[in-house]
Specification:
The structure holds two protein chains of two kinds.
Chain A: E1 2-6, H1 10-21, E2 25-30, H2 52-55, H3 59-70, E3 75-79, E4 81-88, E5 106-112, E6 121-125, E7 129-132, E8 136-138, E9 151-153, H4 154-164, E10 171-176, H5 181-190, E11 194-200, H6 204-210, H7 215-221, H8 224-238, E12 242-244, E13 246-252, E14 259-264, E15 277-280, E16 283-287, E17 290-292, H9 295-300, E18 323-325, H10 334-349, H11 360-369, H12 372-380, E19 395-397, E20 402-403, H13 404-413, H14 419-426, H15 439-445, E21 476-477, H16 478-482
Helix pairs in contact in A: 1-3, 1-10, 4-5, 5-8, 6-12, 10-11
Chain B: E1 4-8, H1 12-23, E2 27-31, E3 47-48, H2 57-80, E4 94-98, H3 101-116, E5 122-124, H4 126-132, E6 142-146, E7 150-151, H5 154-167, E8 171-173, E9 178-183, E10 189-194, E11 197-200, E12 203-206, H6 212-218, E13 226-235, E14 245-248, H7 250-256, E15 263-270, E16 276-282, H8 293-306, E17 314-325, E18 332-335, E19 342-346, H9 352-368, H10 387-391
Parallel strand pairs in B: 1-2, 1-12, 2-8, 4-14, 12-19
Antiparallel strand pairs in B: 3-7, 4-6, 5-6, 9-10, 10-11, 13-16, 13-17, 14-15, 15-16, 18-19
Helix pairs in contact in B: 1-5, 1-9, 2-9
The chains are: A alpha/beta, B alpha/beta.
One flavin-adenine dinucleotide binds at residues 6-12, 29-32, 37-39, 81-83, 133-135, 138, 154-155, 158, 180, 183-184, 287, 293, 296, 327-328, 334-336, 338, 473-474, 503-504 of chain A.
């Protein structure tokens, strides 16, 4: 039994251990240089830090998992391994191991090596079972000035803090929505930044509806409740103002951020006129939620729910037999949920069942995490009114530099067009990030977003258009594609300025 | 008002027909089950080629189309104003090269035959070819320059034609799928039934691209349009180093064969946005959208033979669609000879963007009983080359 796992974050690591425990041979692939995923980002082993355990919840668990897998000859860990395509194969591969169940109908195409180096080697896998644990990156809504240097996604800021021990600024404002704003503030404080405030767009009423009805679930299920309390404690110690119902609606500066405007927003996230307040800051970190990395599950043929997660059963199996999914791509639940789902996915991918005694605790814990994502969405989900803070010059798509005014004008001119046409007439979403940053925004602006059935620029009438379909999951050189022919010269790097950096490649 | 027309399909062919009929005074309703410009017309390239067509009916149609594009491009720009994105019409010319010893002669002979048919096809020396395309692999055996090859951005062109049709009174209804025909006692088609109710019409123009076969069957007539899949690779933006549409002579083999097996030819061109498009494959796999890495690899290898410098270019996206393929390699344009009230504008395979304008003009001429600019008989549904396929059991 051969199990391939994509993603060595919490979910992928847990899946690898469980699959090994159930006797499968495992290949664990991750594009990053080091395992750990978004959560356990850390300094490279050449530059170890005594502080990792302070910066990371569950650090010991991580090092134990990592050590066990590295010491295990039955688990091949391939870092720098970019899965660039998943092909669906209906024909079963020949020469399989003693597969007790039908093999996953997929071929996994991987390039191994530094992404900007010249000599990436191609590898191809036809596993008996595939576990996808590709995580999510955080999502940022555009606002005037968001393309200035000094504006970061919260994930990128946290990655710098955790992975490089660098604070993105001296006087930092954190804004957006979601419980993950708090750990970002904590990471920044730990690296010496002064956090001027955390501005949560959702209002207390929303938070009460989402979080407070069942706080026992959070506390009881995992350490999450305790963890949040820890963050609040950090806030109190450092006197960080935490305000709800407020948003950063503009960033100002000439060459980089010098100040931001914060305003009250109503329950629909529409700025309340007259409440604007200017705060001098040299960095702003924004995150309005998460975007699961769905390109591989979509390529593998997995059914995606209306809330844009991979649909899985109690074995973490997707709609495609033999293809499993775990972690952030199945729902936003934090690190503890990712670990539990990963364990179940790995165990079942290796031929086990969710009722087996080895995974009883995981199966039980999983049910407690169910609904967490829905509660986060209820409490912190993006509300329609945010578009009111856009002005005509705000870039909707930074890669292709498409301003909101032009986007709206084109929509009006072509009245009634769909996502594909809007992308190709405005170029929004066609740049180097392939809509990873702006895809959700574009969908919402034209009315295709999940919570915006009415009131978008255009009426999509339920068409399942999505920017998440990317058959080529990450850039491939033409020479690599042609097969082994090395590039003769590098191409010019991307032309637009990557000021808001994503936490991931 | 002369007549009520229903156009089925808001791809570029339906858009061109809607505009032409609306301009000639008909009341036009365009129905699409999806958003406009989201079918094949949004999934290919926008080459307006004469270079790839040998002497014959399709070349004449392409030459006619090439003569229409500059005027229509100017009219659209004038009519729609600066607010509307430009359709990026550009007569940038094509350069076709042979990369093998055996390939040289057929390419030069083909060009000679095209010259006899009035195509500006200039055999150029290798040195001249390298002047036109300095980054081309110098290791080629023959080259022909076609100054009349042009391009448009197909989605913007489709939207522009629809916008113009709208200005002339056409009603474009997205997300309405046609499900069947309305008929009178004589069997004449008098409209369509749709997911949004019945839409009566004096004539129904079927312009549903690769789905025309399926929709034609719903309307009660057989039409042998089949999907022929194609994929294109897109690089990240890079400095402009490809100046024409450059392709290898293999292209002819691929367009004119009906083998289901994978065929590729490389067509390399830069877009106004700074990306390079590398196409394309031809596969008959039904409406199967699944990625096939083997097809992409072959496109890549062929492109590198033309432009070795592209080895380092990053491919950030691949997309593809289904060309509406006809078994006798000609589009079907004109009144159905079996059922009154049904008209066809389908089956343009890999040339529908270019041929759309000419198709619309031929249809309007036939519909209004005007003289057409070229002989439309080779494209009529009752042509002899199509007859065997119309008789096949569905
Ligand atoms: C800003 C921020 C703050 C957070 N704070 C907290 C917190 O305080 N508490 C908490 O519980 N959770 C927190 N989280 C969430 C936590 O990081 C996630 O729950 C957890 O990391 C999810 O684990 P995962 O394994 O699903 O995905 P990830 O950790 O994201 O791992 C996915 C891995 O897949 C790899 N990958 C993706 N695509 C490919 C591909 N095509 N080829 C090869 N490899 C690929 C990536 O390189 C990555 O290593 C935070 C997240 C963010 C962004
Ligand atoms: C990879 C590739 C490259 C290409 N390159 C070129 C090129 O360079 N130059 C060129 O000229 N051509 C090219 N083509 C071909 C060109 O794209 C097509 O010939 C052309 O787009 C066909 O246009 P259409 O309007 O007939 O079809 P489509 O654009 O497919 O429009 C048909 C419409 O009918 C609608 N429809 C289907 N069923 C129904 C129903 N039941 N009810 C209502 N509506 C329905 C569909 O939703 C669709 O919008 C290429 C094609 C591909 C795939």
């Amino acid at each position: 039994m051969k199990v391939v796992i994509v993603g060595a974050g919490p979910a992928g690591l847990a899946a690898a251990l469980a699959a090994r425990a159930h006797g499968a041979s495992v290949t664990l692939l991750d594009a990053a240089d080091e395992p750990g995923g978004q959560y356990w980002r850390h300094l490279p082993p050449e530059r170890p830090s005594a502080n990792e355990r302070i910066l990371h919840h569950g650090w010991q668990r991580f090092t134990a998992m990592r050590r066990a897998l590295e010491a295990d000859a039955g688990c091949e860990i391939v870092m720098g391994a970019q899965v660039w395509a998943i092909e669906r194969s209906d024909a079963p591969a020949q020469a399989r191991t003693e597969a007790p169940m039908p093999a996953a109908p997929v071929v996994v195409h991987v390039l191994v090596g530094p992404p900007d180096g010249t000599g990436r080697a191609g590898r191809t896998f036809r596993p008996d079972a595939l576990v996808l644990a590709t995580g999510a990156h955080d999502r940022t809504l555009p606002f005037p000035g968001w393309d200035l240097p000094g504006v970061f996604t919260a994930g990128a800021a946290q990655a710098f803090a955790k992975g490089e021990r660098v604070a993105v600024g001296q006087r930092v404002v954190i804004a957006g929505a979601g419980p993950f704003l708090l750990p970002v503030a904590a990471s920044l404080v730990a690296t010496g930044a002064r956090v001027l405030g955390v501005f949560e767009a959702s209002r207390i009423a929303g938070l009460v509806r989402g979080w407070l009805p069942k706080p026992w679930q959070l506390i009881g299920a995992a350490k999450k409740g305790g963890e949040l309390a820890g963050y609040v404690g950090t806030h109190l110690r450092h006197r960080i103002p935490y305000a709800t119902g407020r948003a950063v609606i503009a960033a100002h500066g000439t060459d980089r951020v010098e100040a931001v405007t914060v305003a009250r927003v109503d329950a629909n996230w529409r700025p309340v006129p007259g409440t604007e307040q200017r705060i001098a800051a040299d960095a702003v970190c924004v995150s309005h939620g998460f975007t699961p990395r769905l390109e591989l599950p979509i390529a593998a043929g997995c059914a995606i729910s209306s809330s844009r997660f991979v649909e899985v059963d109690e074995a973490q199996q997707s709609s495609v037999a033999g293809v499993y999914a775990a972690g952030e791509i199945t729902g936003i639940g934090g690190v503890d949920a990712a670990l539990v789902e990963g364990e179940l996915a790995g165990h079942c991918a290796a031929g086990g069942s969710p009722g087996d005694p080895e995974v009883r605790r995981a199966a039980k814990a999983r049910t407690t995490f169910t609904g967490f994502a829905a509660r986060i969405e209820a409490a912190h989900g993006i509300r329609r009114g945010w578009t009111a803070w856009l002005d005509d010059d705000t870039l909707v798509c930074r890669c292709e530099e498409v301003p909101y005014g032009r986007f709206r004008e084109t929509a009006a001119q072509t009245c009634g067009s769909g996502l594909r046409s809007m992308k190709l007439t405005t170029r929004a979403g066609l740049g180097i990030c392939q809509g990873r940053v702006c895809g959700g925004t574009v969908e919402e602006l034209i009315g295709g977003g999940p919570e915006t059935a009415a009131g978008g620029l255009l009426d999509q009438r339920g068409v399942a258009a999505t920017t998440d379909r990317r058959p080529i999951a990450s850039p491939v050189r033409l020479g690599e594609l042609a097969g082994g022919i090395g590039p003769t010269e590098p191409t010019e790097p991307h032309l637009s300025k990557p000021t808001v950096q994503k936490g991931h490649q | 008002m002369i007549s009520d027309i229903v156009v089925v399909g808001a791809g570029i062919v339906g858009a061109a027909c809607a505009r032409a009929f609306a301009q000639s005074g008909c009341r036009v309703v365009v129905l699409d089950r999806d958003a406009p410009a989201s079918g094949t017309s949004a999934k290919g390239e926008g080459n307006l080629l004469v270079s790839d067509k040998g002497p014959g009916a399709e070349l004449r149609l392409a030459q006619y189309a090439a003569s229409l594009w500059p005027g229509v491009a100017a009219e659209l720009a004038e009519e729609l104003g600066a607010e509307f994105p430009a359709i990026e019409y550009e007569r940038k010319g094509g350069l076709v090269v042979a990369t093998t010893g055996e390939g040289a002669r057929p390419l030069l002979d083909f060009a000679a035959s095209q010259r006899d048919a009035g195509v500006d096809a200039r055999a150029v020396s290798i040195a001249e070819a390298l002047e036109l395309e300095p980054h081309l692999n110098p290791d080629m055996t023959a080259a022909v320059h076609y100054p009349d090859d042009a391009q448009v951005q197909p989605v913007i062109a489709t939207e522009a034609l629809l916008a113009s049709a709208r200005n002339h009174g056409a009603d474009i209804r997205p997300f309405v799928a046609v499900t069947g025909a309305l008929r009178d006692a004589t069997g004449r088609i008098t409209g369509v039934s749709t997911t949004a109710g019945a839409v009566p019409a004096g004539a129904v123009i079927l312009a549903a691209g690769p789905w025309s076969g399926e929709v034609s069957a719903m309307l009660g007539e057989r039409l042998p349009v089949r999907p022929r899949r194609g994929n294109v690779l897109v690089t990240t933006r890079m400095p402009h180093r490809v100046f024409h549409k450059v392709y290898d002579g293999d292209y002819f083999g691929a367009t004119q064969s009906s083998d289901a097996a994978l065929q590729t030819s490389s067509v390399v061109e830069s877009t106004a946005a700074g990306t390079v498009l590398i196409g394309s494959s031809r596969e008959q796999v039904g409406f199967d959208e699944r990625l096939r890495v083997a097809a992409l690899r072959e496109i890549a290898a062929k492109a590198l033979r033309l432009f070795p410098f592209l080895a380092g270019a990053s491919i950030m996206r691949s997309y593809g669609g289904f060309r509406p393929f006809m078994p006798d390699h000609l589009p079907v344009i004109g009144a159905d000879h079996r059922t009154a009230g049904l008209w066809h504008a389908s089956g343009h395979e890999g040339a529908g963007i270019g041929l759309s304008l000419a198709t619309a003009e031929l249809l309007v001429a036939e519909f209004l009983g005007r003289a057409a600019a070229i002989d439309a008989a080779p494209f009529r549904p009752d042509r002899a080359s199509l007859a065997p396929y119309l008789d096949e059991v569905a």
